């Protein structure tokens, strides 16, 4: 028996998204920063210094700490790690931040979030001198971003924006959907995309139909911390997908692996371009932290060397 040709189902359009190689982009950026750190040292005899404060233990933060120390040294900067027990009091943490604020060898301060229960992240991030707030999370830098004034921009959203601009060029007029409205990623990401001329929608925990919202995005940035939340059918065909999530899961074999907030295999079949996890946004966050630390050192040291002048 032969079937009429017309009854043969058309093959499903087999698309496969292009991978956005954040790891390679970050490596090139780190190399450039290393050269600039060298030139900065030649001019001022100062090595940019970054202080990282980790209170208690959070799995995502531990991945960050490991890679950050390595990359900081690769860029020729100094890193000062402060690991405090989960029992640290608010007063003790604030005292450390003040000490780092006054330390001339430190140009950037980063307090890893989330903090253990009982510590107030707003009070702590606001205690960091705005010039040293390389995470850009304090009210001065967050306010500058909201007002479109120059300031320090949070590392993860900055890294996402760099990838988007390098992939797509001008973003003006594109509909960008951000899933997740955290102060760390979602809110500053939305501000940056707005400043690029995107039409921006932000979905969050109370959004009624996040899949329908996500499907409108020419650009889809996902930062929820819920591994595999975004399924293939949430994605507009051909969209550019930036996956910020990083969750460690244990496989049946007992091994662990990192997954993103996007169900990768499903998304690859629909998206035009997508960042992998690992190797996507994570390395960009670190490269942008180095970038922000060098910029902070330039601002602090340059202003002291050339008071009242333009750097
Ligand atoms: N104040 C603050 N600022 C942050 O930016 C911040 C934070 N707190 N708390 C924790 C999260 C998490 N985070 C990561 C950054 C890079 C990687 C990273 O390098 N990821 C590699 C991991 C590779 C691997 O080790 O297997 C990758 O995705 O390829 C991971 C996680 C920054 N965070």
Description of the structure:
- Among the domains are: 47-132, Rossmann fold (3-Layer(aba) Sandwich), CATH 3.40.50; 154-281, Rossmann fold (3-Layer(aba) Sandwich).
- α1 (22-44) packs parallel to α10 (281-305), α2 packs across α10 and α6 packs parallel to α7 (186-195).
- It has 311 residues and is an alpha/beta fold.
- β9 and β10 form a beta hairpin.
- It has helices at residues 22-44, 59-74, 90-101, 121-127, 139-147, 155-168, 186-195, 210-214, 264-268, 281-305; strands at residues 18-19, 49-55, 78-84, 108-111, 175-179, 199-203, 219-222, 240-243, 247-250, 256-259, 273-274.
- The strands form three sheets. A six-stranded parallel sheet has the order 1-11-8-7-5-6. Strands 3-2-4 form a three-stranded parallel sheet, sandwiched between helices. Strands 9-10 form a two-stranded antiparallel ribbon.
- The longest helix is centred in the last third of the chain and has 25 residues, at 281-305.
- Bound molecules: 5,10-Methenyltetrahydrofolate.
- The site of 5,10-Methenyltetrahydrofolate has 21 residues, from α2, β4, α6 and α10.
